[in-house]
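Colleagues,

For the teaching module next term, I've prepared a clean inverse folding example: a structure given as tokens, and then the sequence designed for it. I'd like students to try predicting residues themselves before seeing the answer, so please don't circulate the second half yet.
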């Protein structure tokens, strides 16, 4: 039996508190994602930015997983009242929540501890709990693609998007299955503390630093058959030249493919078109430069490959909902003020 408790370290009073709700039948992989991502996020001085705790719906004690071991949870549901963010991972024992769309009395009592305005996050079928509790009414949400049709039938007041990795609806965020939980938690860290912190966590976790929430959940052939060439070299080539104009023909030439074949292979491997991927990489480059440099907006636009500040402004508005100047101001202010509850 493993023990789920807070990580020892520096005083946590100023840290954003994340509480992970461990339900019977919890899937260990999804359960471990919040600690792995939030629990490793540090600022430039090496100080932890989040405090991660685990709660049971009952008094402290063992919680079954879907594996051959239980987790010893040392916090009861009362700790949910102290959370800034609550994460609900997937469980295979949701009972009436999954079958009828209603909370058990025990689960409803536990969720009642959560303060209004607390950020709510679900991983995979953890979204059923948010839905049954009413957090998703009138919103757009996602879950594992295999459960999407059932989820929609059970909760008709929710608009279910089965195609995406995650959906950020402000104070309520939902993700697809398994590894999409990593993408969502990294997205939250990036939104809270910027790309440099999120990229550092991703590097330590050995996962891609950014997969856009709108990327497809299910790719028919995620690993190309051995006899087929991949588009890996073309992506590496493009990343080294983001500041230059890059045409689809240029990328296809790196793999000695026709544009049509390259585009098809690219979608099979990455889940989005080459143009969408290139725009995402340029937005990420711009975010990094806005956070980490004193370069002018015009210079960043050129270095990220947008050409003009106006073009970059349009892309950042579409991707992030803010202008380059507002984005820089937000993260510069956050760096000066430090993290807080």
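(Answer key — instructors only)
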């Amino acid at each position: 039996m493993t023990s789920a408790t807070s990580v020892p370290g520096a005083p946590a009073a100023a840290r954003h508190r994340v509480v992970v709700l461990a339900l019977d039948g919890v899937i260990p992989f999804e359960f471990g994602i919040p600690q792995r991502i939030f629990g490793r996020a540090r600022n430039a001085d090496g100080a932890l930015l989040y405090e991660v705790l685990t709660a049971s719906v009952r008094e402290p004690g063992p919680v079954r997983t879907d594996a051959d071991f239980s987790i010893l949870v040392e916090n009861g549901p009362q700790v949910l009242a102290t959370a800034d963010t609550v994460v609900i991972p997937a469980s295979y024992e949701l009972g009436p929540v999954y079958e009828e769309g209603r909370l058990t009395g025990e689960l409803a009592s536990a969720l009642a501890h959560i303060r209004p305005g607390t950020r709510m996050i679900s991983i995979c079928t953890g979204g059923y709990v948010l839905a049954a509790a009413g957090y998703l009414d009138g919103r757009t949400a996602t879950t594992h693609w295999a459960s999407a049709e059932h989820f929609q039938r059970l909760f008709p007041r929710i608009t279910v998007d089965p195609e995406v990795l995650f959906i950020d609806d402000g104070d309520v965020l939902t993700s697809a299955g398994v590894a999409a939980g990593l993408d969502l938690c990294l997205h939250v860290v990036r939104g809270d503390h910027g790309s440099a912190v999120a990229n550092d966590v991703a590097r330590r976790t050995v996962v891609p630093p950014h997969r856009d929430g709108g990327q497809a959940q299910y790719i028919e052939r995620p690993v190309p058959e051995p006899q087929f060439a991949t588009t890996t070299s073309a992506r590496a080539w493009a990343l080294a030249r983001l500041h230059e104009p890059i045409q689809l023909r240029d990328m296809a030439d790196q793999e000695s493919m026709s544009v049509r074949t390259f585009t098809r292979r690219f979608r099979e491997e990455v889940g989005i078109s080459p143009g969408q991927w290139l725009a995402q990489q340029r937005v990420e480059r711009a975010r990094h430069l806005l956070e980490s440099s004193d370069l002018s907006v015009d210079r960043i636009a050129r270095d990220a490959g947008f050409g003009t500040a106006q073009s970059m402004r349009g892309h950042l508005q579409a991707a992030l909902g803010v202008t380059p100047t507002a984005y820089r101001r937000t993260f510069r202010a956050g760096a000066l003020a430090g993290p807080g509850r």
